[in-house]
Amino acid sequence: MQVAVVQYNPHIGHLQANAEQIIATSVFCRARGADLVVFPELALCGYPPLDLLELEGFVDLCVQWAKTIARETPGVQIIFGLPLRNPQPFGKSMLNGACRTADGTIQQFWAKSLLPDYDVFDEGRYFAPAPPNFNQLWLQGEARIAVTICEDLWNHSLDNLYGHDPLEDEIFQKADWVLNLAASPYHMGKEALRKSVLSEMSRRLHKPLLYVNSCGAQAELVFDGACACFDANGNRMGFLPSFESGITHLQWANGTWILGEGWLIGEDVVTAVKSKLGVTRFQSGDSGDSELELELLRRALVLGIRDFFYKQKLEKAVVGLSGGIDSALVSVLAAEAIGSDQVTAILLPSPYSSAHSVGDSVEFARRLGVCCLNLPIHSAFFAQKKSLQEVFGRNLGDLTEQNLQSRIRCALLMAAASELGAVLLNTSNKSEMSVGYSTLYGDTSGALSVLGDLFKTRVYRLARHINRSGPIIPEQIIEKAPSAELKPGQADSDDLPPYLLLDAILELYVEKKYAPDRIIGLGFDDHLVHKIIRMVDSCEFKRFQSPPILRVTEKAFGRGRVMPLVGKAPY
Amino acid sequence: MQVAVVQYNPHIGHLQANAEQIIATSVFCRARGADLVVFPELALCGYPPLDLLELEGFVDLCVQWAKTIARETPGVQIIFGLPLRNPQPFGKSMLNGACRTADGTIQQFWAKSLLPDYDVFDEGRYFAPAPPNFNQLWLQGEARIAVTICEDLWNHSLDNLYGHDPLEDEIFQKADWVLNLAASPYHMGKEALRKSVLSEMSRRLHKPLLYVNSCGAQAELVFDGACACFDANGNRMGFLPSFESGITHLQWANGTWILGEGWLIGEDVVTAVKSKLGVTRFQSGDSGDSELELELLRRALVLGIRDFFYKQKLEKAVVGLSGGIDSALVSVLAAEAIGSDQVTAILLPSPYSSAHSVGDSVEFARRLGVCCLNLPIHSAFFAQKKSLQEVFGRNLGDLTEQNLQSRIRCALLMAAASELGAVLLNTSNKSEMSVGYSTLYGDTSGALSVLGDLFKTRVYRLARHINRSGPIIPEQIIEKAPSAELKPGQADSDDLPPYLLLDAILELYVEKKYAPDRIIGLGFDDHLVHKIIRMVDSCEFKRFQSPPILRVTEKAFGRGRVMPLVGKAPY
Question: Min CA distance, A96 vs chain B (Å)?
Fold first, then answer.
């Protein structure tokens, strides 16, 4: 059997566009000899559809489109994910399902048994688990194929989170091979984790496995694809490049996979991707991120920006260039994602901006090939300061003045974006967002936060990684001491511990959720740990109003981390 | 048995404060003769604790505090909710539990079986259902008491959402009466819904029922309390006033309740509350909201503001007074919540503000007794406009200029708040938020959105209701045609359909989630319905960055309505 694997990038909710693409792709694959075309989990409606699922008629529309797909592609079999009605008279009204079309009709349905409900996942909000005996083997000629959906393969790896393992069902024991449709988003290290989980599952089941994952970004979540096939001994026989949509073929014959063109080969993603990308330096630095991880990270962020723009029919971006590393890095990534001619860098010098900040920024914009505008904030700042001083009859506080500058920049950036028909990209990093070293409605603003899941030390590492393929970010931008430049001679180190130390503690508290005592037990200063935790806990209100953040770690701010606003951590 | 019912207002995550309050309250009740003191669901950690639950050691800390409570209150029995470890080796690691302390130790545990996972609820994210046989009757002398938690009584009313009904367990059949600990938030109409559900449950079980609900606001969610007791025939024998924390006693004797002081009596909440509040006009107007509903709404909003401030140790608020009804209403509610001496009204007239806007606002602030500052935005507006015009070499677009004014106001309001040690209250209403008739980082800003769940027509109704007890809001503010006053002669009706029509369609689409065809089928204009739906769907990005909104309907913007940002509704 010839199988076409589609590393597919759906548009959430756009049923017509997705259905038409499923039809066109399948017809194309049929012409190339495919017997079966496979799309990922919820390919028809996109993942995650969230509360679109609750709109009246949404699921029925999905099923209607599935019938249309079947009707338009009589000569080929297609498997794709879609929401289904729960046929049981109790429980949530929907299933996270999949169907197989052939001969002009829908032939078979399946549904997901294990519904993830943690971090960014909330499938329990919408879906009931697959009803008993709902999932049946697909008998394809001599072959018996078990169709599973994403999490159904993960119970064992999640510490028995679900209490039962659908793969222990009798029908799975009888399968010749297992198909898994997934919508599994990227985070750093996910590729290795996923490979290890899938490899173990195919080994435990002693079945070959074909894994078909979504590709593309849906606001915060970036899906990396990386479809893969495994033999019955858990060896990964081939996989597809991360972050690239496309169609690849393979053949099931004589109980094994025969790979077509386009598969990457090798046990080791590093070696395989190395040869494909032509990157030569993949050793892990003293930094903790390997060059490969940084390259995947760059691609994730670029795809995250690109899909955010294209899926919303946006074309142009503005970035406020401060002369610091964050805004420079965002500009580079934006230029790569949507083209340097679509990016406008805006300098907004204040009375406290250093001369080299302006000079460095102009030089940087020249190298990057982006248009650069200069919008000094002096006159607006003095006008507003004067109005306020008159009303209050005194000089303004230090913090008031600093925040005022940041908010004037926001107003000017948004006005420039409006004049240019562009949207503003946010340049905050995860360290600032963690401790609230930011101005709400000032530098926290923007349509999309590109670096909001990268601690400052990782921002540096990514900038250096990018500069390895050509010195795009001037060295003086990378080398200068970080500063908000909101008062004379200001430096981040006046208010914050060194980023190396700050980020280490933040990673333990925010990402790993360690209790303070455990962090202190690792050798960090008691007073500093408690101070940082207090800072993190006390600025929940700023993060509540933050833009969507491209998620690149296991624990990003946003929907995957929901904290009470008027709560108090019990430490 | 003397039972003290505590309509309790916990502080989320503040285990020490909550535990100390549980101890002090119980000791007090004991002195007044109570044998048993009952607190609501998750009283020890507050509801909803959200991802605080995932912090390392959180659940263990809760259990330690429960032991302390037991030790400190040997002379009285206490029942209260707290998270527990799931003793099973699979599933989520926690239970939504409750315990009974007596004689210095914890005597018995219970756990919730039905875990709500819809709208603002996401208990499936954290909790496993009660394990089999975990919940046992409490044998108190001759009495057999079944302890249940909130949703456990609701399966029948939720269209068999859970597929099984814990109350069908044998132990419940043997109970003499049923206790239900709840954390059930207010929305308009909830009181009647809850009464009907609980009444039906006690009738079906043929058991008397005691319902103990949380009281107090936790950012978006306002818990109204309204504890109640029912006889075995489903008659509500008494209930406690909404939105008021407190302790009330009743006695279980000879198979029935004997009510102590403080209970409101009567089948009809309208009659009962009428006599208590001294409000005389409770008939439903042509508006659709009765005066009773409006009075409960006012109390919900006042408590929402008050707890937001007090629980975060905030004292002062600023409100930008536009001369319109929204900001006037927010000021009235804020003054009631935290005191008029803690509220500063700030006028920010622009070149396009009407003279009467300023005059009306000054008169209004005088009536309300709040401090009033005047911060004209002219000079800042012209300074920023000039900078932008120089860079772009042309006049700015209409929308750019309007948004610029709104953002300058935001910057000035935030600066004033900073100088006053106050926080900004947001004044957007649900109609504006629905269709995006607002400026991001402008009038969408603020620490808390007071009216974000009230359509404009309801804002009017609430303002008139409040004015009935004294004309606090000048009639000309209520009567004037709504306008953003961002350009000469502007009126909302230039850009939007009349609010009566707009709100009717928004309610059907946003709150009831009707498909467009069904709305059109009700007699609304096809073109208008589609236009409004497009407006709603296209401004998800603004709502994503909105402040927390006090939830007063069944479907508020915020965590209870999560839409894909790059999605497209399939209509």
Answer: 16
pLDDT in tens, B196-251: 999 999 999 999 999 999 999 999 999 999 999 999 999 999 999 999 999 999 99
**Superfamily of A2-277 according to CATH:** Carbon-nitrogen hydrolase (3.60.110.10)
Please state the pTM of the whole predicted model.
0.96
Distance (Å) from the alpha carbon of B317 to chain A's nearest alpha carbon = 16
**3 state SS of B180:** strand
CA distance B47 to chain A (A): 9
Shortest CA distance from A387: residue in chain B: B375
Q: What is the CA radius of gyration of chain B?
A: 26
Q: How far apart are the first and last CA of chain B?
A: 59
Place of tokens 């240019």: A420
Domain edges within chain A: 2-277, 314-492
CATH number belonging to the domain at B314-491, selected among 3.20.20.70, 3.40.50.620, 3.40.220.10, 3.30.70.260: 3.40.50.620
pLDDT in tens, B103-135: 999 999 999 999 999 999 999 999 999 999 999
**Rounded mean pLDDT for each run of 10 residues along chain A, 571 residues in total:** 97 97 98 97 98 96 98 96 97 97 97 97 97 94 92 89 87 92 97 94 94 97 97 95 96 94 73 47 56 95 98 97 96 98 96 83 95 94 94 96 97 98 98 98 98 97 95 92 86 91 97 95 96 96 97 97 90 75
pLDDT, tens digit, for every residue of B246-289?
999 999 999 999 999 999 986 555 545 544 444 443 343 445 79
Look at A163 and B91 and tell me if their CB atoms are within 8 Å: yes
Name the residue of chain A whose CA is nearest to B217's CA.
A566
Contacts of A170 (CB under 8 A, 6+ apart): none
Residue B494 has pLDDT above 50, yes or no: yes
Angstrom distance (rounded) from CA A128 to CA A149: 14
Chain-chain contact of B562 with A50 (C-beta, under 8 angstroms): yes
User: Catalytic site residue A112?
Assistant: yes
Active site residue A215: no
Given A45, A99, A112, A430, the catalytic residue: A112
Q: How far is CA A210 from the centre of its chain?
A: 23
In this predicted structure, what is the pLDDT of residue A265?
Answer: 85
Q: Which residues on adjacent β-strands are paired with residue A182?
A: A213
What is the tens place of the pLDDT at every residue in B301-356? 999 999 999 999 999 999 999 999 999 999 999 999 999 999 999 999 988 888 88
Q: Do A380 and B392 touch (CB under 8 A)?
A: no
Count CB pairs under 8 A between chains A and B: 285
**Which of A54, A308, A566 lies nearest to residue B312, judging by beta carbons?**
A566
Out of B58, B91, B383, name the one closest to residue A570 (CB). B58
Is-contact B30 B5, C-beta < 8 A? no
We find that the CATH architecture of domain A314-492 is 3-Layer(aba) Sandwich (3.40)
**How far is B430 from B499, CA to CA, in rounded Å?**
11
CA distance B32 to chain A (A): 31
For residue B65, give the H/E element and its range: helix B58-72
Which residues of chain B are within 8 Å of residue A124 when distances are taken between CB atoms?
117, 124-125
Count Cα atoms within 13 angstroms, Cβ side, for A398: 4
Measure CB to CB from residue A563 to each of B51, B89, B445 and give the nearest one: B51
* Residue in A57, A308, A386 closest to B566 by CB: A308
If you write DSSP's letter for every residue of A291-357 in order, what string do you get? HHHHHHHHHHHHHHHHHHHHHTT--EEEEEE-SSHHHHHHHHHHHHHH-GGGEEEEE---TT--HHH
Residue of A nearest to B418 (CA): A400
Burial class of residue A520 in the structure, from the number of CB atoms within 10 Å of its CB (0-12 exposed, 13-18 middle, 19+ buried): middle
Prediction ipTM score: 0.94
